[in-house]
Amino acid sequence: MIRVVIADDEMMVRAGIKAILLAAPGIDVVAEAGDGREAVELVRKHRPDVVLLDIRMPRLDGLEAAAQLRELAPDTAVVMLTTFSEDAYIAAALSLGVSGFLLKSGNPRELHAGIEAVADGAAFLSPRIAQRVIALGDFSAKRGAAQTRIEALTPREREVLALVGAGLANAEIADRLHVVEGTVKAYVSTMLAKLELKNRVQAAILAYEAGLAG
């Protein structure tokens, strides 16, 4: 069962998201927060697998809450949920090392898919957000630096990086490489440490920059 905390200052929005999530098997909404500070406390209390954070909330906004949760609850995947697709929000959220970014106006199936993906250790960006990240990134200009950066990786770690860039979860990578999932987790951890990356979203972007994905 994937345990989720929802944080949004609009009660109707929380109710809608909760209804969508509870309609999917294997997902349980364990708590709801109306502001960022309450979200941090509820995550500290419940230790959910995933927390959905609205960008704009009173007392503590989603970005500030995400920054605190990366330190307080590193095992909880943080997914930003917003109606805003401005570039500044995308860049700020990605720099914090969040696990996913979803638009409230997206398809409910994206919400299910995103929760399941990040709970399984993968990264997830709404397709519209992914398009913005790709459009914003001048990958050709960064290609040389990115390729130099990944020289620190072994051939197998580079292969794992490419599959992370393709959006595959650990179990899918394990199937593709014919290894056990624990081996993939070890490769991913080592790869992130070598590249000094916070999480798989940043790894996926680097994979694009290096020409390993896309």
Automatic annotation (TrEMBL):
Q: Which SUPFAM superfamilies match?
A: C-terminal effector domain of the bipartite response regulators (SSF46894), CheY-like (SSF52172)
Residue ranges of every copy of the HTH luxR-type domain listed in the record: 146-211
**Which InterPro entries does this chain map to?**
CheY-like_superfamily, NreC/VraR/RcsB-like_REC, Sig_transdc_resp-reg_C-effctor, Sig_transdc_resp-reg_receiver, Tscrpt_reg_LuxR_C, WalR-like
Q: Which GO terms describe its biological process?
A: phosphorelay signal transduction system; regulation of DNA-templated transcription
| PROSITE patterns named in the record | HTH_LUXR_2 (PS50043), RESPONSE_REGULATORY (PS50110)
Give the superkingdom in one word: Bacteria
User: Taking every annotated instance into account, which residue ranges of this chain make up the domain Response regulatory?
Assistant: 3-119
Name the keywords, alphabetized. Answer: DNA-binding, Phosphoprotein, Transcription, Transcription regulation
According to its UniProt record, what is one Pfam family this protein matches?
GerE
The record's section on Gene3D superfamilies has: 3.40.50.2300
Positions of post-translational 4-aspartylphosphate modification: D54
Molecular function via GO: DNA binding
Q: What's the protein called, per UniProt?
A: DNA-binding NarL/FixJ family response regulator
Write down the species: Streptomyces zagrosensis
